[in-house]
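Supplementary Text 2. Reproducibility record for the structural model of the 111-residue chain.

All settings were left at their defaults, and a single model was retained for analysis rather than an ensemble. We include the record here because the model underlies the residue-level annotations in Supplementary Table 4.
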Amino acid sequence: MTDVLTDATAPRFRRPADESVDAGDGLLSPVARLEALCDPGSLTLLRSDVRSARMGGKSRAGDGVVTGTGRVDGRPVFCYAQDPSYLGGSLGEAHADSIVRVLQLAGRAGA
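Retained model, structure tokens:
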């Protein structure tokens, strides 16, 4: 595992899901964190268009979490990364549902 993933509480991990890897402040987006975790080119995002119906105009794609599948050292993985900048890092219904679904997929796949 690389150094960039060793401390999930470090400020560099606080970046909205829909922003770039480095917007000039050195912070990684949830997608960039998953890309750093997975083998190059192996990450496939799941349910990236999920939005909370209850949040109206405040909702954004992913609802504060990014889920996906990929490979780590050639082995299949199911992963998610949360976005603490979205609504203070709160976990809503759509957010939690995305996490549950990726964990269920992992269970069915025996990962």
